[in-house]
Amino acid sequence: MTKAILVLNAGSSSLKFSVFEYDAASDLHLMAKGQVEGIGSAPHFFAKDHHGQVLVDEHWQDGESIDHAHCLLAIATLLRTHYLGIKLLGVGHRVVHGGVHYAAPILLTPGIINALDALSPLAPLHQPHNLAAIRAVAKAMPEMPQIACFDTAFHRSQSELNQLFGLPYSCFERGIRRYGFHGLSYEYVSSVLQQQEPEVAAGKVVIAHLGNGASMCAIHNGQSIASSMGFTALDGLMMGTRAGRLDAGVVLYLQQQEQLDVHQVEELLYKRSGLLGLSGISSDMRVLLASQEPHAQLAIDYFVHRISSELGSLAASMGGLDALVFTAGIGENSAIIRQKVCEQAQWLGVELDPQANEAGEQCISSINSSTSVWMIPSNEELMIARHTRKQLGL
To answer: No. of H helices and E strands in the chain?
Structure first.
């Protein structure tokens, strides 16, 4: 019988999953991964095994009523069909916000699920859907252990100073503070550095997690020092559809002078801003890079500008910079964005190796660069599986 851990990462219109084989004598091994995308519109169920062979590629009827429970049933059917005798030991979930109280992976209980639900206003694009998948598993497999792994947990090592806003201290005591996100990605990339380049990992490192959601983190000796995201996942870098750092007075102006209600402001900041809003074309960096439209170039330039600004700020928080690491969709796949960022970071001792960058090698800095530059693919799913295994005592 094959023992395995299921990892789920649920969004508003998708449910990503990975299945890892558990072997007490070695690390976890990927068996299969895939996703159901287009939930609520045109659902598409796609999965591959660890060799990259397609297991399922199915388009469900447009507009078909599909929720996370339906997706979970499809995943379970897939596993039973292709992996006879598989035994799930537990399910690990990415949960975006852990708030003040949840600073490490935890075995879920009904009480904890309700407490996490109260944090949904801090991550409205993610938290409700993370919890929908958890509740779907609880209903379908009530005895199955479920582990929540938090994107905020990695940043709990930050000093109080780096968590503060310039608000009354009572706000901080009530939980209004900088939390930081993408912690599972930073934790994984840091673990790769620790394993492969321990001298680099021990230094002052900034990791740039650049994707549809984007943030950056200052890490010293494997510990989070400061991050670009704050109280919610709106802060910091401009993203695919999110505005990033913004004068709070803009929100007041939109409400008081342009008469936007809170829901309209939320829609604007989370879904109609960022690369999409500035370009007027797309939230997809690949589309913008291929476009000749002036506003597409403007959106790209502003994206790089904000990365450069945050890089300087994060380096200052550590008193220097030894290494810059790119990860996530844009960071891993766009040589031109890496090049543009590095060109603007020459004052920090960054010198890119153009050939290594174009080839997508792991180390992409030149031998003369005083600050090393790296491209390391993220693997949040494996990080979640590792935490799940540990919490299950395996």
So the answer is: 16, 13
Cα 341 from Cα 305, distance rounded (Å) = 8
Strands 323-327 and 204-210 turn out to be parallel
Which burial class, exposed, middle or buried, applies to 194 when counting CB atoms under 10 A from its CB (0-12, 13-18, 19+)?
middle
Check: CB of residue 128 under 8 Å from CB of residue 183. no
Q: Is 74 helix (H, G, I), strand (E, B) or coil?
A: helix
* Two structure tokens written together for 202: 């021990």
Determine which one of 62, 151, 284, 353 is catalytic.
Answer: 151
pLDDT in tens for each of the 394 residues of the chain? Answer: 789 999 999 876 788 999 999 988 778 999 999 988 877 777 888 999 989 999 988 887 755 567 778 888 888 888 888 888 889 999 999 999 999 899 999 999 999 999 999 999 888 888 999 999 999 899 989 999 999 999 999 999 999 999 999 999 999 999 999 999 999 999 999 999 999 999 999 999 999 999 999 999 999 999 999 999 999 889 999 999 999 999 999 999 999 999 999 999 999 999 999 999 999 999 999 999 999 999 999 999 999 999 999 999 999 999 999 999 999 999 999 999 999 999 999 999 999 999 999 999 999 999 999 999 999 999 999 999 999 999 999 8
Angle (deg, nearest 10), helices 127-140 and 68-82: 50
C-alpha separations of 306 from 45, 162, 254, 336 in Å: 36, 19, 23, 16
What is the chain's length?
A: 394
Q: Calculate ∠ Cα 47-242-291, nearest 5°.
A: 75
Q: For this structure, is 151 an active site residue?
A: yes
Longest CA–CA span in the chain (Å) reads 65
Q: Is 29 helix (H, G, I), strand (E, B) or coil?
A: strand
Beta strands in 80-213 (DSSP E): 87-95, 106-107, 146-150, 204-210
Q: Is 44 exposed, middle or buried (0-12, 13-18, 19+ CB in 10 A)?
A: middle
SS3 (DSSP) at 107: strand
Could you give the angle at the alpha carbon of 229 between the alpha carbons of 331 and 277, nearest 5°?
70
**In one letter, which amino acid is 296?**
A
CB atoms within 10 A of CB 88: 18
